[in-house]
């Protein structure tokens, strides 16, 4: 920047740290400026300028001296003056930062890394001069000329010890802040080990290799590439706010391990699926009523928008019609859903589709993939056990809802749900519910504790916010009994004498479940002190949705009992398939469904095929009774993935949309691309998608997918690190032809009010008239 002070005829050429001052005055004015500039942080150098008065140049004494010199002398002087003038030129942006950490990555004197920062190092690096880079994590000063330090790469536990033996490098090293990025050049040596007895186990390694922790780098040159700000907080006990996620990734060992673990699992999955073609499908799609809410992306074309895909479902089906018989990809999906611990608005899934295949083929292929991952990544620190059960257990949707109260059964929870209508006395039934002709269900959970302790636990549970919800059930709260052999009717007096006997007979005659061992079966069929019995009423209707009231209460009690130490934790991962889902579900007013007028929507998506020929017939007579050829992969109460055999006939697909779901013809036209592909001789095909975030969370033993995602969204769908989403600017409103609509008022379709500070646009005629007026 150049500033001209005309009043004093000074010229100051300023470049942040240096000012060149040229003045025609020698006295007080010159000394004033030359003293004022340094106080403002400038380096000042000045010289006399040729004096100009009344437009004439006045010759100075030095000019007369110059005329008397020889040409040779004059040339030397001019060359010297050019050098001085060059020095007085304003510094460039580069010169300003020269010598600071900003430019060290670009300087020629910083050699590129030549040392493999790995756990094992080839022996030929011994006594070799190498360069390495990393973060400075530790400094141990022994003297002015001897200092040890540690450097690591940021990912992984590998640390290389540095050794400085001279004052210059030691001084440099000690001046650097911990966690700064540095470059070090020196010679690799093996660490010195005193010849004394040690209980430490010697490291075993193959011939020709050394472990990194056995080596040290004797420093010859060290450069700081970037300094770690002293105001940044970090440490093992430090709590990182969401806006400091980058620091948490760097310093939180568990999070960093999870992300590296995720990368390794992804690489293993790709290797296991190497017979599939990994094909990327578009992210910018269009809005189609598949079942979930979508994210729209406006365009500059008025009235047009993209939609982010809920899944690559339609594209991968079109790939089947295109002759790609085995497809996979790690797909990014987007759903505008209510968020919870296992949900994110954007997530990753391992997406698979196979032509000439049915659900059996797909399920077998997925089981093979899961076993391969568990075999490679089973480790004690993650409490992960290899899977040996072949094939995975299978259970129908109706069985899952009847005996587990959930379409995501957790086989770790003891005590299945049983229907006990014939056992509950009329008086007890009226106390539990006001429903006419209800269904009563009960479950028995074996807890480790004296009956009095169990009663106290139950009382405390129902007084918590979680437990209070179940007491406010509109169909009636649960009935609770604790088996106690010291009390009348062994604590089952609420059932009456006859009811208590029938209840014990019911449980004693239960068949052994395939997923229960001998001990689990004995616990399920016998009564012991402290057993907890829960009874709940529900409407006499077919199962629908994802859970029942008793199923949710059973899960909540299981988690609370684990926390209180009343149950032993089961560390195994119990995988199973849930099959035979209803093809259609009554609309709940929350999910958008397919926007048809039938009063129900597809349980999963409208592309799922009916299970059998009988289910095809039910599409005309009673669609709600039709079963879909759908299958969910579940582990320990977590839905990891879902898939189905697809409708591969265009006529069948159109019939489902038009006659069964009764979709608007314009909405059916939104699927014209898919119908066109299906009509081109599309082969039978089936597929599945595994939630990759959930899979990693399960394998790592964490409750939330946020702990295995680098940059997750909050429960409000916000990324606090980058402050997204952000408010739309006025320019963007105009660029994308958007307008605000207030749905609460009658004037809901009025455009957004204009900003009072915004100048109204003038038409070309108004501008012309103004110009004419001014000229007049």
TrEMBL record:
GO cellular component, one term: mitochondrion
Origin species: Lachnellula cervina
Compositionally biased spans, kind Basic and acidic residues: 57-72
Cited InterPro entries: Aa-tRNA-synt_II, aa-tRNA-synth_II, aa-tRNA-synth_II/BPL/LPL, Asp-tRNA-ligase_1, Asp/Asn-tRNA-synth_IIb, GAD-like_sf, NA-bd_OB-fold
Protein name in the entry: Aspartate--tRNA(Asp/Asn) ligase
The Aminoacyl-transfer RNA synthetases class-II family profile domain, residue ranges: 270-725
Keywords: Aminoacyl-tRNA synthetase, ATP-binding, Ligase, Nucleotide-binding, Protein biosynthesis
GO molecular function, one term: ATP binding
GO BP field: aspartyl-tRNA aminoacylation
Stretches for region Disordered: 57-81
Bilayer-spanning residue ranges: none
Domain of life from the UniProt record: Eukaryota
Lineage: Eukaryota, Fungi, Dikarya, Ascomycota, Pezizomycotina
Family: Belongs to the class-II aminoacyl-tRNA synthetase family. Type 1 subfamily.
UniProt cross-references to Pfam families, sorted A to Z: tRNA-synt_2
